[in-house]
Q: What sequence folds into this?
């Protein structure tokens, strides 16, 4: 059974090692080894971007595989199986030995979602929201944009109206009306500043 390497983002570079031993469990060099990658339940393996180094770092029986997943074969929303397609260890043929499994954007557990959102949020440049009332239902990034704008931009309050200005600080983009009946002070919903 092969070991699962993880769920990677698009166009990954994946490195891993595996050992080859003879029937007596002595580390033995892999001869004539070829590594291929299968996609999902497909029967055609790909060798694109796959390299195999035997006796890695001069250590007998330690093999290193690198997969550079930039080819179209490595499409997102798929699982992949890395297999030793051919080779011998001593006098034993090891063709068809599964080595590792991995996926490319095909699992979205909590840690994958956090990693994906972290990547997007650190690389995505967004303009601040324009003048208008914020939508009650919108995407999380737009909600963050409004929060950042309300924290960063010029604001004023004249006792009854709270106003948030544009980046230049010259136009009221959003406002709310405050009321006070002597017992309860209420801030109204943010609406357009127009």
A:
């Amino acid at each position: 059974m092969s070991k699962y390497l993880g769920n990677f983002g698009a166009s990954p570079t994946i490195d891993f090692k595996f050992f080859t031993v003879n029937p007596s469990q002595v580390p033995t060099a892999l001869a004539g080894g070829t590594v291929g990658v299968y996609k999902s339940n497909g029967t055609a393996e790909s060798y694109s971007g796959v390299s195999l180094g035997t006796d890695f770092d001069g250590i007998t029986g330690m093999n290193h595989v690198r997969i550079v997943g930039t080819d179209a074969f490595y499409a997102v929303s798929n699982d992949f199986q890395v297999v030793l397609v051919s080779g011998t260890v001593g006098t034993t043929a090891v063709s068809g030995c599964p080595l590792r499994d991995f996926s490319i954007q095909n699992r979205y557990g909590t840690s994958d979602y956090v990693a994906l959102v972290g990547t997007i949020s650190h690389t995505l440049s967004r303009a601040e929201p324009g003048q208008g009332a914020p939508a009650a239902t919108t995407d999380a990034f737009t909600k963050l944009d409004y929060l950042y704008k309300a924290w960063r931009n010029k604001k004023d309050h004249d006792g009854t109206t709270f106003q948030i200005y544009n980046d230049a600080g010259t136009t009221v983009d959003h406002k709310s009306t405050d009321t006070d009946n002597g017992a309860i002070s209420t801030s109204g919903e943010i609406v357009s500043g127009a």
